[in-house]
């Protein structure tokens, strides 16, 4: 034992790293780099200029309740205008149809969206094409459009000159005048449209549509969410699928496709379940026995995955299946768990040997509240009559599906039956969908989330004409938010009646920023998935129930592509948006985020300094609304401000308070232009061009920049451009360098290397510091200034400082050049800025020095914060029956399963933050019996730390500390022992329903409905009519 101790003592007896020397290095580097950052940013000058106004400005605490009320009213006005536009279209559509007489022989040339401006081989316009004037328009994302006319799109699987299409297109030409008039009244409108129940789609302004690579346009307006939600009321649906032996082969394939198509017609306000039956009842998802689930995208996708597991055998006992379906619907209705509106049973089978009138008599007659929609699969019609009778006797509709090509058109028919009560009631309900991108309609910008408002025009006998609607870009709603009042970390957000996000700064709808590919469930991201610290759903529940109130909690906000975390305390204020199913909230961070100040300067001085070439205003902030009138669209924000403040355009809608403060900021920051210019002209300064840019931003969205090198020589060309989304003022956030500087100790700089979404090294270091008005915690952060310098320049300063020592003879016993030690410079989140191995730049320190990082965590120098991402993407290995994810051992998968795809998932991952109170410390790690010493020393006036580590032990076996996310597994396929528990976990998650508020409008049935329009009235034989008539006459007489 003693020998062992002796050995350890010898191996660990190396001279320790002198703390005083490391402190000297840190002090020398800190002084040098702060001197450079202060000098070139002009931070001290700007602080002095704001201090000069300290006694004349007025500091106000933000009234969050008043703020959210104003935001709600502004949004309400936008929604009201869009609803009025659709109502004018409804009236015009109904009037035009009333005046039209159907003519089966009508010949009419219209502008087909695909064929316009197409010519044949002789140079002549093709039929339904013709010359159609198109001009680029910046309001429509520079697409070429026609502002005088609309175009008509007809699905590829429909005949362009079908009499129903031609007649519908002819009378709906009357909408062109209303489209144009609507756009004149409200220039903020974008796409307006009419989706016909016959299948064609009229869109304004006119734009050319392009088929896919197969020459096909699959878009059919009738299976879009906005169409279905406007046409029908919320519904509870039980889908019964016959899996008896006769359904083998193609019939089962068609049945699966039919079920999938039905699921596609269900929206977030609907509820459903799927039951397969033969001689037994089989729930497609066994854990959902006897209940219904919300038809959100996640649940629908889950059931679709199970459809392939259906196989046919045995005999079909439909009576048992119908009884089960009626029982579920009745119980769900009684406990109020479903939609509490319309109910339907979808029956997918190849025939029925009897009518099961005893089941209907027991559960559905005489009220007939549950509609029956039978889908006869296959060409055989031997048992069709019974199915036809079921539809007619239960206010449903019968369809026969012989091929896969017939599926969609036949499935859609049930929607028109479900729409009858609403049409007969002559209810023009405005339906607001959740925010989503419909690339076929919103072709102006795939990356802009839109809302659809739809109203169903009608004609007599309860037959739907179609749906009219318009898009509302989320960006337009964002313009109503006074970002300057929300502060650096504050934000506004809005949700639907289902708790889904309309807008929130943490919503990530795309697979990758800048790409057009949308995540499957991007439109149903729940508020609880971004405000996940609210574990009791207090905020979500209050907002879903349209309450007005406040809520507070500590939150962890990630920045810099999710790699860094800021911890703060937020106060939330929320209220409902009248006339819509939406609620809006604002979050204000405590401390400087709750205060705003007002200063005054002369109008002449303010306008003069605002018009300087180095000044820019936040692109997505609204100082003046130039969109409301066509004649103002060409104005820049600075031009609009000048016209408004000089009373030359007094009718412009402008935010006077914001403008007065941006003029104040323009005057206070103006001296920096001359200061930076002087530095740039001084040849003795910055001779090696290490500093490239100086920049500043203020609380009003004003920014100034100065280049110390010509633009072509900039190392990072994207910085402060639209490409650098986190680095500029945005509709929902302040720049990253501003946010991080605000959380630093006043007077200190925050340094970082930008993370690139593409993974390439930006080779620059950013330094920024916040400017406070007062010296206390309640002081608003009035601005932030900073510089961009070359990484090589920054690192050279570090290595120069680390060669210093206190030796009188100048011979240093230790320096970072020694092979016995390794020197690193890391930031407060543990990312490496300087290392001898340049490939380690911007890596997390724990990946390089796992043993040391673990010790720093144990010592409390750094702390680990667990974060959750409910919009994450994980790699899935295609071809594996258990959907193997990255967490499984890839080597166990067969070679054909090596193809990977990115799929949505939930993850947990760590972030790391330094402990501010610890300035310096020493420690050691045991690497297999070898003691390794290290020193960590804070760099003064910064967020940086120097870490010096002995290099005499092999610590390569120590596991790294990484920031890699770990997928949260709800279904595990690891071994048989875990299956019962995991099935239970999966089941609980499926069954769990968060609070939601039902839509107010509900039209389940109407006594004046013509139930004989059921897809088969003329086909009933005499014996069936004899049975049916007493039932119908009894119901009608009631």
TrEMBL record:
It is found in: Membrane. InterPro entries: Ca_channel_alpha-2/delta (IPR051173), VDCC_a2/dsu (IPR013680), VWA_N (IPR013608), VWF_A (IPR002035), vWFA_dom_sf (IPR036465). It is a single-pass type I membrane protein. Keywords: Calcium, Calcium channel, Calcium transport, Coiled coil, Disulfide bond, Glycoprotein, Ion channel, Ion transport, Membrane, Metal-binding, Signal, Transmembrane, Transmembrane helix, Transport, Voltage-gated channel. Residues 236-418 form the VWFA domain. Pfam families: VGCC_alpha2, VWA, VWA_N. Residues 68-103 form a coiled coil. GO terms for cellular component: voltage-gated calcium channel complex. It comes from the Eukaryota. Gene3D superfamilies: PAS domain, von Willebrand factor, type A domain. One of its GO terms (molecular function) is voltage-gated calcium channel activity. PANTHER family: VOLTAGE-DEPENDENT CALCIUM CHANNEL SUBUNIT ALPHA-2/DELTA-RELATED (PTHR10166), VOLTAGE-DEPENDENT CALCIUM CHANNEL SUBUNIT ALPHA-2_DELTA-3 ISOFORM X1 (PTHR10166:SF56). Belongs to the calcium channel subunit alpha-2/delta family. This is Calcium channel, voltage dependent, alpha2/delta subunit 3.
